[in-house]
Design brief:
The structure holds two protein chains of two kinds. In chain A, strand 13 and strand 14 form a beta hairpin. Helix content of chain A is 27%, strand content 19%. Chain A is built from 24 helices and 32 strands. The chains are: A alpha/beta, B alpha/beta.
Chain lengths: 787, 431
């Protein structure tokens, strides 16, 4: 193939194109419309719908534009009698068995078949026989099916095979009996499954949660940013009557392409949860009362002032990294304005020993799109497929084009691409990484040098080191379970040294939608805005809990579900004199320990900015009015600042806050440098049964925990104790038995499930699920007792 | 001049499917000669080209030319695939090759592999051909034991493994790319072409796929020479051909005669019409080929050009001879039902159109036809033909058009009188 362009003629227009490009891509680029159903730019060509037939000079039959490569001098007519005849013929065939009841179809008004029928359909049907009817199938709580409407384009089938990496839908049966389905009755469980709703050109696959909630033309479309993982997928939020009705992906090739994870698509349901806090509440004499804002704010201010008194160190601020940049900036400003350095967003971290030598602004360090061109990646402590589905999708593309991907994890994870997994108990994870460090001749000092020296270099370690060394474009990525690991500091330093030795880059996969933003905003005890080190270091999240303070300010976090160690935070809050919580939800977990609950705006209700994993700042507007009396958190913080008499709380809009932060941090980029070669002693141990507490996909934050449809999926499993068959045997427990888990004196009753994904010596008990909110840290020694 | 090629051993041997008997009539001599003397692969291909052999599965594409599309020296795996799916209604010739002359097919496939540099072959056998499959498997065992299959054949350094694959019973798997999909373990659905199998075939590798009869002809062509084979037939239709002849005749069966043989001679060969009835029509090349009225057929020769000129196709050589007691509406009803049932469902015109065609024909057959149905049939045919992924759509449309062209009055009679022009009255169609 040469780089030279060929010239073709379409409907009399001269077009230039690379030889071999499919005709439909050339005409699409030129704005010439050719109708199509099965063709989709992100999927393989299947050429089955025959809607894009066009006339090509010297060819006796019409050809499908989607699979006809262009060549020099080709003359194409898209509207000649032959072409139109063929297109109209196909349209007639598609309609003979398609129900013509658009008014009761959820796709009506945004249906590709309906649109194309306007141009190519006939006003009268010549088909007088009974139409085909296909029995309903239930494929889960997210996707509604109406296969009677199916036009067999197989986009959904190809999506499964090519994009989601799991073949959940297929076409069975021949001829007219061909139907889309799951073959054996089962649900569609991919974490990206909702995308088939967008791909389906007809009303065969529609969104179950928003089905029949509005007609397409009644909806107002707004641009926004998805509020869960650190990808920051671009979305369209569709609203009607001041309510979010549904969420669709917005195309952004450099971030989410055209895809959206199910969590980002369906979590909006949590906005309208009955749990929403719609009125400020204060606890008076142990009773919760709804009060007006003024009273609540004054109550909060008085509480904070009297508890913290003149000792700023008595104030502890713990914020969720799902808060906006503006909220995080004001929260740290308020905390520091009260002469406290105690602010942290790292609620799921327990090892802070690296603070000061840590990466100033930890993030991917490469672009999200750039992940596709990696040729080697080592992921440490990451279930990337469930935690950041879009990043996993990009990694999958890299793996499919030959990248070597390996994982060092405490659990076997289900992957949709080829990768090596080295699974062990948390303590052995450190050894495994040390073994790779040794194989890569990584330079370390002190304690870690000793650890590496003592490590045995396994064959697998050698091969991983070799893969990284020989890669032109390799990374070592630290995932969410690494961040929660009791020896996070060791993992980071080891990974950083391996990266240096193998000439690859160190990368972090931030957990939440604004984890990077939290670092930029200065929501850290040791770093202020723009990640500059502060003179007087405050207490980190762990210290704020283990050495209880008198006053706490919480934002967007629920004690039982958003912290590394629920028992620790609960006990700290119980001992406090005043706990002020900015929250969108009224939850048991907060009500039991807070003194004031200030209702804040949720996703889509406030303007703000999120900074994603690659460091892209993405601002959005408030799209619907906050529910009840809720207010955007930045406004609440501003008023609190005023009432506390702190300077610099005069912003009139979130834009003002953003401008202020930008004056510090606009130029601050992701910085993954680590300024040490050693770390402390190993915290995790191989003694006893070690808990692995991941954060399940649909439990990651307050919003998704209340998204009812997602909570009904198979992926939203209730809390359980999971053991390998071996471990169950040696622990003398049996499947389905109810066990009592004892961790740091805290007890929880949970059923036992035998799960081959758990390594021996470990017990998998997810955190953030009802039933685990009283347990200890995500990682740590537990004992099991019979109930 | 009959039984010169695929049936050459039949009349001499008691059990022609046994290796020793096949060898006694010169079996495997050509392969042995090629391997021992290291005959140039290009020479083999040239001979095939010179023979004028056209694909015997129905499409009639020149076999030698097909082989020449594959570069023997291109790196990577290549495949030889034999299409023994034989699903075209009226066709039953390949079955007889598998039954009576399986070794000649094996020999032909090894030579084909040698010619294009393929070391693996598959014979895809129609799902209903269980006995033939077993017999072919037995022949494979014998050939392997005798060193005609396996590694380093006859010490030549050439390896060739051959496997048979029993289909699942879908007509569409006779379409070459659907067949390849089926071998790969996928749902039997045609691929869009290009790319053709010569470039992207089995498992994405260069592949030649030929009909059973074509591949079985190879050893004889190479033994007797391309010219010899070509001379058997007529201009543009070299060689002889197996004809599966069925219908209302006295002596149905498979006959190997030179191409260009007058139909009238074949008619003699099958003993004429049964019960002295009158010849009404002939389907000359399998169910998919348009029907030709009897008297016109009597003047035609059986070769590609003559049948094409008469508006039909030689196809797979399946001749169905129809007497004057048969209702053409009923016959088309049955045929259209077949295509409706066998459409793979992949592409729109065939999935939706074949069902529509059958339903209209069926209602005419059952006395519920409307005047506009005849135009409707023609129109629906026009929207299927030439617009589908594979030829199944054309195959469904052609018989309808053929019937309407020559026997429209029978359809009109059905519409007007709610019963048959011939026979006893309305007959119930399938469905």
């Amino acid at each position: 193939m040469t780089d030279e362009l060929v010239t073709i003629e379409v409907d009399g227009r001269e077009l230039k194109a690379k030889p071999g490009t499919m005709l439909i891509d050339v005409t699409d680029a030129a704005g010439i419309n050719i109708p199509r159903f099965c063709y989709h730019k992100k999927l393989s060509v299947s050429a089955n719908c025959r809607m894009c037939l066009v006339e090509v000079e010297k060819v006796p039959k019409p050809l499908p534009a989607c699979c006809t490569p262009v060549n020099e001098g080709m003359k194409v007519s898209t509207r000649s009698p032959m072409a139109l005849g063929a297109q109209k013929g196909t349209m007639e065939f598609l309609l003979i068995n398609h129900p013509l009841d658009c008014p009761i179809c959820d796709q009506g008004g945004e249906c590709e078949l309906q649109d194309v029928a306007v141009g190519y359909g006939s006003d009268v049907s010549r088909y007088s026989e009974a139409k085909r009817v296909v029995p309903q199938r239930d494929i889960g709580p997210l996707i509604a099916t109406d296969f009677t409407r199916c036009i067999h384009c197989t986009r959904c089938v190809r999506f499964g095979a090519e994009i989601a990496g799991v073949r959940e839908l297929g076409a069975t049966g021949r001829g007219e009996h061909m139907t889309i389905g799951t073959f054996v009755e089962k649900s569609v469980d991919s974490e990206m499954s909702g995308n088939v709703i967008d791909l389906c050109p007809v009303g065969s696959l529609t969104a179950k949660p928003s089905r029949y909630k509005a007609r397409a033309w009644e909806l107002t479309q707004h641009d926004s940013v998805a509020p869960h993982d650190s990808v920051g997928s671009n979305i369209h939020v569709h609203t009607r009557n001041n309510r979010v009705v549904r969420v669709h992906p917005k195309e952004n090739e450099s971030i989410n392409e055209i895809w959206l994870s199910d969590r980002d698509r369906f979590s909006y349901e949590g906005l309208n949860s009955e749990d929403r806090l719609t009125q400020p509440m204060v606890r008076k004499n142990g009773e919760w009362q709804e009060v007006e804002w003024q009273e609540a704010l004054e109550f909060a201010v008085k509480g904070l002032q009297s508890a913290a008194g003149s000792d700023g160190d008595q104030l502890a601020t713990l914020v969720s990294a799902n808060s906006t940049l503006e909220e995080l900036y004001l929260a740290q400003k308020l905390t520091r304005g009260m002469d406290s350095g105690n602010i942290d967003h790292r609620l799921r971290q327990s090892d802070f020993r690296l603070d000061g030598n840590d990466s100033p602004v930890p993030g991917l360090g490469i672009t999200i799109q750039g992940i596709e061109s990696l040729d080697a990646a080592l992921l440490v402590g990451s279930n990337v497929r469930k935690e950041q589905p879009i990043i996993a999708h990009r990694l999958r593309k890299a793996a499919k084009s030959g990248a070597k991907v390996s994982f060092i994890n405490p659990l076997w994870i289900d992957l949709h691409f080829e990768a090596d997994q080295f699974v062990s108990t948390p303590a052995v994870m450190v050894d495994n990484l040390a073994s790779i460090a040794k194989a890569a001749s990584a330079k370390l000092t002190g304690n870690l040098a000793k650890l590496v020296k003592a490590a045995e270099v396994s064959e697998t370690a050698k091969s991983v080191a070799e893969q990284l060394k020989s890669a032109n474009n390799g990374v070592i990525m630290l995932g969410n379970q690494a961040a929660a690991h009791p020896d996070y500091s060791l993992l980071v330093v080891l990974a950083s040294a391996i990266a240096e030795a193998t000439n690859t880059s160190l990368s972090y996969i931030p957990a939440l939608s604004n984890s990077v933003g939290a670092a930029l905003a200065g929501a850290l005890p040791h770093r202020g805005p723009a990640a500059s080190l502060v003179e007087k270091c405050g207490a980190n999240a762990q210290m704020m809990q283990s050495k209880p303070r008198k006053a706490y300010l919480l934002m967007g976090a629920e004690p039982g579900f958003d912290f590394w160690d629920p028992s620790l935070i609960n006990s700290a809050l119980d001992q406090a004199e005043c706990v002020v919580a900015l929250t969108a939800y009224h939850s048991e977990s907060l009500a039991s320990c807070a003194d004031v609950m200030l209702p804040i705006a949720g996703f889509a209700e406030t303007s703000g900015t999120l900074v994603n994993a690659e460091g892209t700042w993405q601002s959005f507007n408030g799209l619907v009015k906050p529910q009840g009396d809720a207010r955007p958190a930045w406004k609440v913080l501003r008023v609190l600042g005023n009432l506390l008499d702190i300077d610099g709380f005069d912003q009139n809009s979130s834009d003002d806050v953003l401008e202020e932060l930008k004056s510090h941090a606009a130029e601050t980029a992701i910085d993954n440098s680590v300024s040490t070669k050693t770390a402390g002693e190993l915290n995790s141990s191989t003694e006893g049964l070690y808990r692995i507490g991941d954060v399940p996909m649909y439990a990651s934050d307050a919003l998704v925990r209340r998204a009812s449809s997602l909570q009904r999926t198979n992926s939203a499993e209730p809390a359980a104790v999971r053991l390998s068959a071996n471990q169950a045997k040696s622990s003398d427990v049996e499947e389905e038995e109810t066990l009592v888990v004892v961790q740091d004196g805290n007890r929880a009753q949970l059923p036992l499930i035998i799960d081959p994904r758990v390594p021996d010596g470990a017990v998998w008990i997810s955190s953030a699920l009802p039933g685990t909110e009283k347990l200890g840290g995500q990682f740590g020694v537990v004992t099991l007792e019979k109930a | 001049m009959a039984n010169e090629v695929c049936f050459r051993t039949l009349e001499y041997l008691k059990q022609p499917w046994e290796l020793e008997e096949y060898k006694s009539r010169g079996g495997y001599e050509v392969l042995t000669h090629i391997l021992k003397n290291k005959v140039g692969p290009s020479e083999v291909v040239e001979t095939m080209k010179a023979s004028g052999l056209r694909g015997r599965g129905g499409a009639g594409f020149p076999t030698g030319l097909k082989w020449s599309f594959i570069s023997r020296n291109a790196p990577g795996q290549k495949y030889v695939v034999c299409n023994s799916d034989e699903g075209e209604p009226g066709t039953f010739k390949d079955r007889d090759i598998l039954r009576y002359n399986p070794h000649q097919l094996i020999e032909g496939m090894v030579i084909a592999g040698y010619a294009i540099g393929a070391t693996v072959g598959y014979n895809y056998i129609r799902g209903e051909f269980w006995e033939e499959y077993e017999r072919f498997e037995a022949a494979l065992e014998q050939a392997r034991a005798a060193g005609f299959l396996g590694d380093n054949l006859l010490g030549s350094g050439f390896d060739f493994q051959l496997h048979s694959h029993l289909g699942g019973g879908a007509y569409v798997c006779g379409e070459e790319t659907a067949l390849l999909e089926s071998i790969e373990g996928k749902k039997g659905q045609p691929r869009f072409k290009p790319p053709f199998p010569a470039h992207f075939g089995l498992y994405g590798r260069p592949t030649i796929i030929n009909n059973t009869e074509s591949l079985s002809s190879v050893p004889v062509i190479l033994k007797e020479g391309g010219e010899w084979f070509k001379e058997l037939g007529v201009e543009n239709s070299g060689g002889s051909k197996l004809f599966s002849i069925s219908g209302n005749i006295n002596n149905p069966g498979v006959f190997e005669v030179p191409l260009g043989t007058p139909f009238s001679e074949l008619f003699e060969l099958v003993g004429g019409m049964k019960d002295g009835r009158k010849l009404k029509a002939v389907i000359p090349g399998g169910c998919s080929s348009p029907v030709i009225p009897g008297e016109q057929m009597m003047d035609l020769t059986m070769d590609y050009d003559a049948i094409q000129k008469a508006g039909s196709m030689l196809g797979s050589g399946a001749i169905v001879i129809i007497d004057d007691q048969q209702c053409m509406v009923k016959m088309l009803d049955r045929m259209s039902y077949f295509y409706h049932e066998e459409s793979c469902g992949q592409c729109t015109p065939c999935r939706e159109g074949t069902g529509w065609l059958w339903r209209v024909v069926n209602r005419i057959e059952n006395g519920k036809g409307r005047q506009e149905d005849l135009d409707l049939l023609e129109s629906v045919c026009g929207k299927i033909a030439g617009r589908t992924v594979c030829a199944l759509g054309d195959a469904a449309a052609m018989p309808v058009r053929g019937m309407l062209k020559y026997f429209q009055e029978e359809f009109q009679y059905h519409i007007d009188h709610k019963r048959c022009m011939v026979g006893a009255g309305p007959t119930k169609g399938l469905g």
